[in-house]
Amino acid sequence: MIGLPGAVTACLFDLDGVLTSTATLHRIAWQRTFDEFLAHRSDGDRAPFTLHDYTAFVDGRPRADGVRTFLSSRGIQLPEGGADDSPDAETINGVGNRKNEALLRLIDEKGVQPYPGSVAYLEAARAAGLKIAVVTSSANGEHVLEVAGLTSFVQARVDGITIVEERLRGKPAPDSFLAGARALGVAPGEAAVFEDALSGVEAGRAGGFGYVVGVDRADQADQLLEHGADIVVDDLAELLDGAK
């Protein structure tokens, strides 16, 4: 009924872009932050931030990792700073905090909408007795789930705060998904990973999970397969019996 191998007893869902449309808000927040940052630099490649930059260097990664990876691609280096840096600080964490402020403003302005097909899939997974966790690099995971009305589906949550507190490596390393499986009490081979980011499907494959579902929200189906997805769908409802 839910399109998964019989050995799978748990589902590990990425949040932004898989369950909710907030990936679009993340992309806009990153673009605004980086374009403003680059406009005031005299070093490195200062061309505007693009969709390719988002998918290749930022999407799915913890915030500081995204800043570091993107700026490195432009030949720009900044000091790390600390997690409590001011958003105005010229540090990796400062730029990341600037992006988070932009994101929270967008969430307040536009709200958070879950994908209807994802809600239908969550309902089917819960009815089938599968365990459900959300594994996201965002430090705003709890807030987004609450605003989207999805909290009741989730038995465990691993988010950006967990990643920092437990010193986990961010995606494409599998650490956060492995932590999600542990939180549900299942082995990796018993869990399916659902991801829209290239770094996320790569993490699912690296962790030895039982099934990796790529969700194609950015016209990158071939790349999702190349990075480790077992199957790619445009919407999770496609996995349900009777879907057309």
Structural commentary:
By secondary structure, the protein is an alpha/beta fold. The chain folds into 2 domains: 10-21 and 113-239, Rossmann fold; 24-110, DNA polymerase, domain 1 (Orthogonal Bundle). Helices cover 44% and strands 10% of the residues. It contains 10 helices and 6 strands; from the N terminus they run E-H-H-H-H-H-E-H-E-H-H-E-H-E-H-E. It has helices at 22-39, 51-58, 63-73, 92-110, 116-127, 141-148, 160-165, 175-184, 198-206, 221-226; strands spanning 10-13, 131-135, 156-158, 191-195, 211-215, 231-233. It has a 6-stranded parallel beta sheet with strand order 3-2-1-4-5-6, with helices on both faces. Strand 4, helix 9 and strand 5 form a beta-alpha-beta unit. Helix 2 packs across helix 3. The longest helix has 19 residues, at 92-110. The protein is globular.
The CATH top-level class label of the largest domain: Alpha Beta
Strand content is: 5-15%
- Report the mean per-residue pLDDT as an integer: 95
Number of domains: 2
* The CATH homologous superfamily of the largest domain: HAD superfamily/HAD-like
Structural class, from helix and strand content?
Answer: alpha/beta
Biggest sheet overview: 6 strands, parallel
The ordered string of helix (H) and strand (E) elements is: EHHHHHEHEHHEHEHE
Give the C-alpha Rg.
17 Å
Number of helices: 10
Measured between the Cα atoms of the first and last residue, the distance is 13 Å
Low-confidence stretches: none
Query: What shape does the CA trace take?
Result: globular
Helix content: 40-55%
CATH architecture name of the largest domain: 3-Layer(aba) Sandwich
Q: Strand order within the widest sheet?
A: 3-2-1-4-5-6
How is the CATH topology of the largest domain named? Answer: Rossmann fold
Number of DSSP E strands: 6
Cofactor: Mg(2+)
Family: Belongs to the HAD-like hydrolase superfamily. CbbY/CbbZ/Gph/YieH family.
EC number: 5.4.2.6
Catalytic activity: beta-D-glucose 1-phosphate = beta-D-glucose 6-phosphate
